[in-house]
Design brief:
The structure is a homodimer. Chain A contains eleven helices and 14 strands. By secondary structure, chain A is of the alpha+beta class. In chain A, helix 2 runs parallel beside helix 3 and helix 5 packs across helix 6. At the A-B interface, helix 8, helix 9, strand 12 and helix 11 of A face helix 2, helix 8, helix 9, strand 12 and helix 11 of B.
């Protein structure tokens, strides 16, 4: 499968972004709009302090239909009680009025500082300005939802005669750096919301759900797909595969652009006792601060890999069966360090990708997790900050 | 309860440390010795790649009797297979020969690089030199087990006519910085090993088991207590309390001296649904990179606290009931930020202690976790390192 060299909104979709006064410079309010009602599906954060837009969004998604998504950055509308819920609804209502669509088909997201009131008047004002900025370039919409991302993120690919486009933001998991993961996918293929939902959950399961920048789960994470059907039906197996592919590519993009990151960190567990155990082990590796600093330091540190596997107390791990590969080089087997070319491995690790693979030799469970290295940049972005 | 201003080995205990050639400078081999056989108890790491000394140590502790503990730093004897087991036994045998004690009463520990052979000849040579350095100052023994600790750690207190002394190392959880948690406690009180075991488990449960420097569980963690009985019996309730107290004080010392740490981080969950849930929530807070960088940055970031509580998916968390205190100041209640004196709280946070307390208002579960802030120093110590 191949990504388009230049992303584009699918047929019948447009997007826009403006500065409505939340950020000092750059756009801070985005709209994604379909000219007809779409079937749609979404998954939201499991955090028990969900943002008001997530609470309202879950309701809206019950109908499986959407026309538009409106998103502001800088303030997250989380931890804001009843007023927050009201403000989330007002965002949707303003879009409904301005674009003559049903308020029940407008999803809203907010990302940024927690426990501060949403400046709803500014946002309502900004929504009035969006119409004159509508564009078919998804990067325009991606720009307005950025927080600590270093660049806007959008990808497109073709499925038969249809286009599938995805816009996202990532970076860290939460403010102060006003991060959170927001992912929006758009297609002009015709697919029922029930099927979209199944495909989305399947794709997210092995992509965004295997991504970790810093173990901290945002209160606002949202992943939505809208299908407006303007290009008719497509082979749904092919579409499902395409959705899987684009989710995985976007996952890597978000990982590589994690707060302070200089490298993509891939951690893989193969031949684990079960798929569930493979996921636990891959996640333990990708989340270990000692593995993440090892990636930054480009050192083939076998001990840290064994430690991170061994601390999965609930999993089947027998030291005598475990093999470790670092960037495709076997470094540990039969309970002993293998005699490998360390200089060569260090050189590989000093590139932009670190890949750690552990073979458990226990069963057939497999999982791959996505993350990034841990650097001074993360400390800088997250310590040198005032939340107010 | 009050700690002695100067720690001392209890009656009948001595310790020593020498350089046996593992480190370029400083001592790297320590011995702790009782003149009579002690009743003893120990807890070891749950990591599934336990070091050879842990595997052999579990066997030795089955008898609940010890005369001596021998410890080397720099090389951990982990991930070393059968040869590692043999080398661990050789360490114990060398001490048995040199000091005419039963080899089944000598516990050994090793801390340092993983998956490298233990330089057993050097260690055996060093064991021959220990006798001439025996001392009643526990800091002498504490010196030889240090890795990335910035200073040796020993504490003493009195229980009736008996003395209870604890020696420990901490810093990070594993190499490259050759860290691991090793804790040794000594007393001249007379207590059966069965009772010692129960008291040790109880004390560890709320102290060392609630400590996290970096979420990474070492393959070598060991906590042992030896009671030689030379001062006769003591009130065991008082002793149990004293053990709890000294474990908690040592936990704070290790947390404060975590790799790169500048502050002690205390996170507390009160009125949680259950004790188990309180522990999960307190641990989620103490381990969150965003909480740890917030402590470093001295910012009262309410959003990060809500996030870290909310990501405890398995716990009872109702946003409308949650209250947050930062260094004793109420900052969040009734789903809204409280109007508090931010400058005052920032000033408190810029001291050497950050205390975050969350009231769940769900039940009566309580837990307190111990950690440290996340700083450039941690990245430096763990990235700028070659494992070979």
């Amino acid at each position: 499968m191949e990504l388009h060299s230049q992303p584009v909104m699918p047929r019948g979709f447009q997007c826009a972004s403006v500065n409505c006064g939340l950020k000092e410079s750059g756009t801070d309010l985005s709209l994604f709009l379909s000219e007809v009602t779409c079937s749609a599906a979404a998954v939201f954060t499991l955090n028990q302090f969900p943002g008001a837009p997530v609470i309202v969004g879950r309701e809206i998604m019950k109908n499986g239909r959407l026309r538009a998504i409106v998103v502001n950055s800088k303030v997250s509308n989380v931890g804001t009680g009843e007023t927050g819920i009201e403000n989330a609804r007002r965002m949707g209502l303003a879009v409904a009025r301005e674009f003559s669509v049903d308020a029940g088909e407008v999803l809203m997201s907010s990302t940024g500082v927690i426990a501060k009131p949403l400046p709803i008047e500014k946002i309502e004002g900004g929504i009035g300005d969006l119409k004159q900025h509508l564009s078919s370039d998804p990067l325009v919409g991606a720009q307005g939802i950025m927080t600590t991302d270093t660049y806007p993120k959008a990808l497109s690919l073709s499925v038969g005669s249809a286009t599938l486009t995805m816009v996202a933001k990532g970076a860290g998991m939460i403010e102060p750096n006003m991060a959170t993961m927001l992912v929006y996918a758009f297609t002009d293929a015709k697919i029922e919301s029930k099927n979209l939902d199944a495909m989305l959950r399947k794709a997210v399961d092995t992509s965004f759900n295997m991504l970790s920048v810093d173990t901290d789960t945002s209160t606002s994470d949202t992943c939505v797909i809208m299908a407006n059907g303007l290009q008719g039906t497509v082979d749904e197996d092919a579409f499902s595969e395409a959705l899987q592919f684009i989710c995985t590519e976007m996952t890597k993009k978000i990982a590589r652009d994690g707060e302070g990151a200089t490298k993509l960190l891939l951690t893989e567990a193969v031949n684990a006792f079960s798929r569930e155990e493979a996921r636990i082990i891959a996640k333990s590796l990708v989340n270990s601060p000692l593995i993440k600093t090892m990636a930054f330091g480009a050192d083939p540190n076998i001990g840290r890999v064994l430690m991170a596997v061994g601390k999965c107390f609930s999993c089947h791990v027998r030291p005598e069966r475990v093999e470790v590969f670092i960037n495709e080089t076997l470094v540990y087997k039969n309970q002993a360090r293998v005699d490998f070319d360390e200089d060569k491995v260090r050189k590989l690790l000093s590139g932009d990708k670190v890949h750690i693979k552990v073979n458990l030799n226990e069963g057939s469970g497999e999982a791959l997790a996505y993350g990034c290295d841990f650097t001074h940049g993360y400390i800088d972005e997250n310590a040198a900050y005032y939340s107010s």
